[in-house]
Amino acid sequence: MREKVILLASGGLDSTTMAFWLLQNKIDFIPVFINYGQHCADTELSTLKNVLPNEYKGKIEIIDVNGVYKYSRSRFIKKANLWEDNITADDLYIPYRNILILTLGASFAQSLNIDRLYSAFINSNHAKEIDCSKDFFLKMEDMLGEYGSVKMEMPFLEMSKFEVAKLGIELNAPIGKTFSCQASPYIPCGACPNCVDRLEALKNL
């Protein structure tokens, strides 16, 4: 029986590529989707069910904490009218989002006696959040390992979005069907940091 790990999965390009990377490396995983109140949660979840490797599409675990940001004014939580509202990257900021996602994933893993948590975060040049940097992720990895039994694995941390997209193509991951927009809950806006990173990567391919 293969060892199981937890994969934080959102239906985006990075985590979809990681799912296929784990499959290639014969690492069994439980895909975990976290609903923290993002306006695109339904789109992300339906996308995730579409892009995961077939044998994992029915194994998604959902952690629902959608009330945590219910008073947030972030446009990642409260959807905007993209025809009328002038949205900037600062409008999409969500405090402690990645800390929340990683600690929830680690807590879920520990409750199942699973000691490895895989995340597809990369060191983005466009993200505004303070918890999106390589330095933050390394400190978070140390903290989870020191104060718990879960080791955080981030194989893509040193990679660019282009390199992850290229790997996705090589692994036959359906990266063209992924969704990771911050500003629109249905159709990628093409202008938010996530869309910019994704479009640049696909263009460079």
Write structural notes for this entry.
It is a single chain. The longest helix is centred in the middle third of the chain and has 15 residues, at 97-111. This protein has 6 helices and 5 strands; from the N terminus they run βαβαβαβαβαα. The protein starts with a strand and ends with a helix. The radius of gyration is 16 Å and the shape is globular. The model has no long low-confidence stretch (mean pLDDT 87). The chain has 205 residues and is an alpha/beta fold. 36% of the residues lie in helices and 11% in strands. The protein has a 5-stranded parallel β-sheet with strand order 3-2-1-4-5, with helices on both faces.
Question: Key terms for this structure?
Answer:
single chain, 205 residues, alpha/beta, Rossmann fold, five-stranded parallel β-sheet, 6 helices
Radius of gyration: 16 Å
- Compute the number of structural domains: 1
What is the third-level CATH name, the topology? Rossmann fold
Instruction: Give the structural class.
Output: alpha/beta
Strand order of the largest sheet: 3-2-1-4-5
CATH superfamily: HUPs
What's the mean pLDDT score? Answer: 87
Number of strands: 5
Helix content: 25-40%
In CATH terms, what is the architecture?
3-Layer(aba) Sandwich
Beta-strand percentage range: 5-15%
Estimate the global geometry from the Cα principal axes.
globular
CATH class: Alpha Beta
Point out poorly predicted stretches.
Answer: none
| Terminus-to-terminus distance | 37 Å
Order of H and E elements:
EHEHEHEHEHH
> Sheet with the most strands?
5 strands, parallel
Helix run count? 6
